[in-house]
Amino acid sequence: MTRSAWSATLALLIFTMGTSIVTPLLPLYQTRFGLTDGQITLLFATYTLTVVPTMLVMGGVSDRIGRKKVMGPAMVSVTLASLVLAFASNVPMLFAGRVLQGLAIGSFLGVGTALIVDHAQPMEKAWAAMVAGLAFRLGFGLGPGLAGMIAQNASEPIRRPFEFHVLLMVVAFIAFLVTPETIRRLPRNASSGGRWRIQVGVPAGQMAGFATFLAPGAFVLGFLDATLLSVVPLYMVAVLGVRNLALIGLVGFLELGLGGVTPLIARQVPARIAVMVGVGGGALASLLVVSASQLHSVGVVLIAAAAIGLLNGLTLQGATAICGVSVPIAERGKLLSALYMCAYAGTIPTIGLGYLAQAVGITAALGAFSACAIALAAVVILVGGRVYREVIPYLETPVDGFTGDGA
């Protein structure tokens, strides 16, 4: 990839660390602020309420006014969020910090990925999309991994992890500033008949495949991620008796960080197959989390987190590769934002799991989670796999077969 693609990747990696720092801190929030399981999962998922609509809007906006004009304010927002959460003294401040994180990640993630792909050479577009997926999965994983270690050994465990992220954001801002813009601002009447319309950028003729394959696949990925990052930490404390915050953070790192290395070990797996294997395998691996209560084994939870992380990474690898080659540069931001929007929507059911845990117990709630994940995965494989039979690349300048979008 080009130097500009790598600088954009560095900014993306550091940026995403900030939104997952909360995972090993959730038991501390529960103790300090007296929150229930349901309230903890609501806090975790709150940012989704701003992520989803923001992604829907900002992908298309970046295709018109430029990537960096959207990403810059998002970087300011995530830095402010870390400051708010570092100094939170009450529950409303916790929720305010999560809302700021949602606005930030909703504006940045799909657009930042598009910027990385934009800067890649024509024959490297699919690989650049996979590297972007690696970067943000690794960033999401480093967030709880480092936060757990810092919190376990710090005198102020809630504050120090976020202060560390604020310092890292200085590096992210430098990487962002040296990365050139790739989109020339379009005149207001250049498209859409002079009207600015919000559109999900699904390739022509592939809406049915997106709706039955990519969208629900991303939803399952998000559901698995969010449950391991919000409900499982509470489960580890309440059922398995874990008190080491670094160990809780390790679950987050394994689940998210290992997903980032999947493209390095499974690069040759066809994108469509990657989605089906990732979704199906990840859903089945969720059964290990439930079995940990019977075995009273933290090790089983760690194994489950690693397996789900690798398989979710496979899902993301396939999905982002499909999005990276299916549309021209002017529509890439919308399509990637739509994909990530579906993934973040998968965090919403964890709110119900939290309140279900209060009613029937956290182990039974995780059993329901596993059953739902397996059922959704079956839909992706059995229904979506039949509808979405092939990946149709966008060819702007065909030369000896597929050449990417020529950007």
List the helices and strands and how they pair.
Elements: H1 3-17, H2 26-33, H3 37-46, H4 48-65, H5 67-86, H6 91-119, H7 125-153, H8 160-177, H9 207-238, H10 245-265, H11 271-295, H12 298-326, H13 329-345, H14 349-360, H15 362-387
Helix pairs in contact: 1-6, 1-7, 1-8, 3-6, 3-9, 3-14, 4-5, 4-6, 4-13, 5-6, 5-8, 6-7, 6-13, 7-8, 7-10, 7-12, 9-10, 9-11, 9-12, 9-13, 9-14, 9-15, 10-12, 11-12, 11-15, 12-13, 14-15
Briefly note the structural class of the backbone. Answer: mainly alpha
Cα radius of gyration in angstroms:
20 Å
Q: Helicity level, as a percent range?
A: over 70%
Dominant shape: globular
In the CATH scheme, the class would be: Mainly Alpha
CATH topology value = Growth Hormone, Chain: A
In short:
With 407 residues, the protein is an all-alpha fold.
Written account of the structure:
Helix content is 76%, strand content 0%. The chain has a single domain, classed as Growth Hormone, Chain: A. The protein is built from 15 helices and no strands. By secondary structure, the chain is an all-alpha fold. Helix 5 (67-86) packs antiparallel against helix 6, helix 9 crosses helix 13 and helix 9 packs antiparallel against helix 15 (362-387). The two termini are 13 Å apart. It has helices at residues 3-17, 26-33, 37-46, 48-65, 67-86, 91-119, 125-153, 160-177, 207-238, 245-265, 271-295, 298-326, 329-345, 349-360, 362-387. The protein is globular.
Which keywords apply here?
mainly alpha; disordered C terminus; 15 helices; Growth Hormone, Chain: A
